[in-house]
Design goal:
The structure is a single chain. The protein has 428 residues and is mostly helical. It is built from 16 helices and two strands. It has a two-stranded antiparallel ribbon. Helix 10 packs antiparallel against helix 11.
């Protein structure tokens, strides 16, 4: 079922895994920042639109994590137990199918907001939004579970104790799986595509009929167009087998490079588009991002002296204790016989990382190491406390400013012009 030969040497494998890990951590960090903004603002948690959006972002985080994990696992442990592989493939395929349905739900919500504004509050409630999310997971999970059931029916139970290269083809390789996969993909994409087309046309006609709020209708139409673009990007994964076949036929010697490039452009990079083309475009979300970033920028701008002192203390400490370690250990064969090696050891020790790759053995060297560790703890702890206090000060100041602006824009009580003031008696 799987080849036992490695297709990449160490350098190529390291570069590919490094690129995947770097992009995965970067994209998940950006997506995680949007999730953080969502849970920090109670207004977002009461809006079905943002609930569906953050579900899409969380789904992308989970899918990207599993995809990168499977790639790294294929190099570190090429063959794993089929049962564990079935679990990983189940999560990967389910999260991949969630994205189109989530986009369809977001398009329908925008359609109701524009074309049925009086019924939007009654139809699009928070409870129904979470029910829709549960339904999306059920619809996406059912075909994946049926794939495992087909494997149980068509293959002996002993196959689940075998070891395979973990890939979708390792689980869904029978003709029954292939037919079901094609049918599920066609039905799902047809449903989502028709949903986007219908909602877009209705919103477009509503925008033409609108006389008071044309800007809102046009913005909703553009939002649905962005959903269609995201759906098109999601559909790239379905064209991957075709592009792989064509490119591998033309360039058979570049097999691993072609497969890795398609993996980047169809599984990793599209996960960055959800926050960029939707989250940043939303004015309310963008304002919250600016407030959060401005607080950090203000703290950094007012803490440059403390940061400079921290770096200066670290540089002095590393220089002093590296020299002491070199003096005590240069005759010993422990890896501290050069100044650069001692600088590396001093940096690792003072920043309290402590890899343990280089360890002094003499009494003087151990005393220098103890002083380096204690000095690093004090040097790092003192400026960090000052920086944290400044951050708390500017954060409270920013929150107070936001509250004052909110109170000025939304007064708590506005007297009715038809009623006389309560404390003023009318003339007799």
């Amino acid at each position: 079922m799987n080849s036992t030969t490695r297709l990449d040497d160490f350098n190529n494998a390291f570069i590919k895994n490094f690129i995947s890990c770097f992009l995965g951590v970067l994209i998940n960090t950006i997506n995680g920042f949007f999730v953080y903004i969502f849970f920090r603002n109670a207004t977002f948690q009461r809006d079905p639109r943002y609930i569906l959006y953050v579900h899409l972002v969380l789904n992308d985080i989970l899918m990207l994590t599993i995809a990168v994990f499977l790639q790294i696992l294929s190099y570190l442990v090429p063959f794993i137990n089929l049962s564990f592989c079935c679990f990983l493939v189940l999560l990967a395929v389910t999260t991949d199918r969630n994205s189109p349905f989530n986009l369809a739900g977001m398009a329908v919500e925008r359609y109701i907001a524009v074309c049925r504004p009086l019924h939007h509050a009654q139809i699009c409630t928070v409870r129904r939004t979470y029910v829709l999310i549960g339904l999306i997971w059920c619809v996406s999970l059912f075909p994946s579970l049926s794939d495992i059931v087909l494997l149980l029916v068509t293959q002996p139970l002993a196959i689940f104790s075998s070891r395979v290269r973990c890939h979708v083809a390792a689980v869904n390789y029978t003709p029954y799986h292939q037919g079901q996969s094609v049918a599920v993909q066609v039905i799902n994409l047809s449903f989502v595509f028709l949903t986007l087309i219908v909602t877009y046309l209705n919103v477009m006609f509503a925008a033409r009929r609108a006389t008071t709020d044309q800007a809102s209708a046009m913005k909703a139409r553009n939002t649905i167009l962005l959903h269609a673009l995201q759906l098109l990007i999601c559909m790239l994964a379905y064209f991957t087998p075709l592009t792989n076949m064509v490119l591998l036929y033309a360039f058979p010697q570049q097999r691993t490079t072609i497969l890795f490039t398609n993996f980047l452009f169809t599984s990793i990079l599209p996960r960055l588009l959800s926050p960029l083309i939707y989250g940043v475009r939303d004015q309310k979300m963008l304002n919250c991002i600016k407030v959060s970033l401005s607080c950090r920028q203000t703290t950094a701008r007012h803490s440059y002296r403390e940061v400079g002192i921290l770096l200066l203390y670290l540089a002095v400490g590393v220089s002093v204790f590296s020299g002491m370690a070199y003096t005590a250990e240069y005759e010993e064969d422990v890896g501290l016989d050069t100044i650069p090696a001692c600088w590396w050891w001093g940096t690792v020790s003072m920043t309290t990382m402590g890899y343990g790759d280089v360890v002094p053995v003499t009494v003087a060297g151990k005393l220098a190491a103890g002083g380096c560790i204690l000095g690093g703890t004090l040097v790092v702890a003192l400026p960090i406390t000052i920086i944290f206090n400044k951050f708390s000060h500017f954060y409270r100041k920013q929150k107070a400013l936001e509250a004052s602006v909110r109170n000025n824009n939304n007064p708590i009580f506005t007297p009715s012009p038809s009623l006389p003031p309560r404390n003023i008696k009318p003339p007799p």
